[in-house]
Every structure is written in structure tokens, then in C-alpha cells.
Amino acid sequence: MIRVGIVGLGYWGPNLVRCFSDLENCKVTTVCDQNYDQLLRIKDHFPGVYPIENFDALLDRDLVDAVVIATPTASHFELSMKALEHDLHVLVEKPLAQTSAQCRKLIDAANVRNRTLFVGHVFLHSAPVIKLREIIASGELGNISYISSRRLNLGPVRKDVSALYDLAPHDISMMLYLLDQQPETVACSGFDRLSPGIHDVCNLTMKFAGNRMGMVHVSWLDPRKERVLTVVGDKKMAVYDDLDQEKIKIFDKGIDTPASSSGDFADFQLAYRYGGSYSPFIQEREPLKAECAEFIRCISEGDVPLTDGINGLQVVEVLEAANSSLLRDGQPIELASASV
Predict the structure, then answer these.
(1) 197 Cβ contact partners less than 8 Å away, ≥ 6 residues apart
(2) I need a labelling partner for 205 at 20 to 30 A (CA). Which of 18, 43, 52, 246 fits?
(3) What is the mean pLDDT of the segment spanning 289-305?
């Protein structure tokens, strides 16, 4: 039985407590937060957990085998490193850390101690995204031209990180997973309307090898909630709408160019294809619970997670380059491949 401690009981922490508590092969033994009232609220719902306010005190007691870090981004590196130095397995909510240098140090520490380092890229454990990757790999969509996404809502507004660091990791992680490659260049623009230096709206563009592109639009100043990702291939197109009952729709639509042309303008006629559409069957599951179960499985079986430290590093490298571009008025930034 793997003993788990949840650190950080803000927006996401209580959901993590619930999901880990539902698993058979682990036990939530302690929860940690500086807000004692929140600790008591969690204990009311989960009487078996031990509440503790101080993270160092948690580490000094034999209470856990693994910790889940669901605290503000700025604290991810310090808390995760302390946990690894105490030979604990670690799940860190996205992003893994603020910088790629910090990510590499965490990866090294986990490797030296043979501990599982797991990043909370929750959408990589969702059935629709896994299905979408299968569809792309099957060739049904043809050669992928681009992937675009919109992650919009009115709030919640963060004061510690920008919309880029708060929202874009989800879409970046999905695009890297679906295309199975890192971008070559990254460009990002946006504006900071509410708080100077904290961008509320960002438009991120990633250029991949093979003339592929990824575009991410994130905002917490939008009137409508949207969670939509579109994959455009030269045969078919797919739309993943996380808020729709039918999560994925495949469209037999596109533009066909003539196979050959004599050079005469009249011979070069584009053909617009408007075929049918369908929604593939998806065996739904709660992504967060699937993520928690995978973390425990990887610890138990010694497997390398899909969302391991390297995966976390790759996403942070894109964020780092995007933020650098953001501060340079959208200047494209070349991205080196992730390495440790």
C-alpha cells in the first residue's frame, strides 16, 4: 500500500485527495497546506487523513511514500527537490517548474535516487486525446498541416503566473503528444491588461519540422468558456471539444489541388470537399483519476511514466521560449531539443 500526501489544497488539491482516496492500492495519509481552515474542511470529508501545516515537518515524519505537489508554480521546484531528497516519489502539477534548468535538476535528482517523477499533464491521460492520437497515427486524417486550440474563459485570474504558464501547458502538452515532436521555433504575443507583467491573453505559435504548425490562444478575459482543439490534415479534419458531449468529431472536408497542371490558370482549379462527419466511440473515464492511478502504477511496477520529467521539461522549454518571445514583442525564438 503506497502512502500518499497531498500538498496544496487550493483549487485542484481537493480533487486530488478525492481521486487518490478512491484508488485501492494507495492511501492518502496526510494533507498539507498553510491554511488550517482548509485542512479542517478536508479532514471533515476524509477523516482518515492527518492534517499538517508545515511541509518540512511532513518530510521529517514517516507518513508518506509519495507526495503530490499542487501548490503555486513558483514553489514547485523547491518542494519537489526536498521531497526527492527525502527519497519520496513525486507528482507535480503542471508546469513541472518555472525554468528548464530547474526541470533538469529535478530529473537528475529523481534518476540518482531511482524515484518516480511524474508531471500532471492531465489531458495526456484523457480518453479523447488518446483516441485522437490513434486516429492521427492511423493515417485517417492524412498528413497533418496544423493543430490549433482555444482555451478561453472569464477567469479565474491568477496573480502569480500569466495565462501562458497557467493555461497553455495543457495545449502545448497535447500538441507535442499528438505530433510526437518538439517545435523548431516558438513565437508568442499578448497583453497584460489587469496586472503589469502578468499577461491575461496570449497567442502562441509553434513551427514544427515538415511544415507543420501549432497555434494556441489562451485568455481569462473571454466572455465564453471554450476548450477546443482542431487538427487539420490533408485528407480529413478532427475537432476535440472538451465541453461537448461528443468529444471528437471527424470531418471529411478539405481542399483538393489538381495532381498536375499545364500552367494555364484555367487548369489550376481548387476543389472544395464537403463530405460527411462522425463521432468515434470513446470509452470515457475521469482523466484526473486515470492520471492518479497511472502515478501509483508506475511507482508499483517501476515503469517510466508517459508524463515523466523529460515530458515536463519539453513543455517548460516551449513555455520558456514563448515567454522570451512575449517579452520581445513576438520575436521568434529557436528551440533546442530537450536534453538532460
Answers:
(1) none
(2) 246
(3) 98
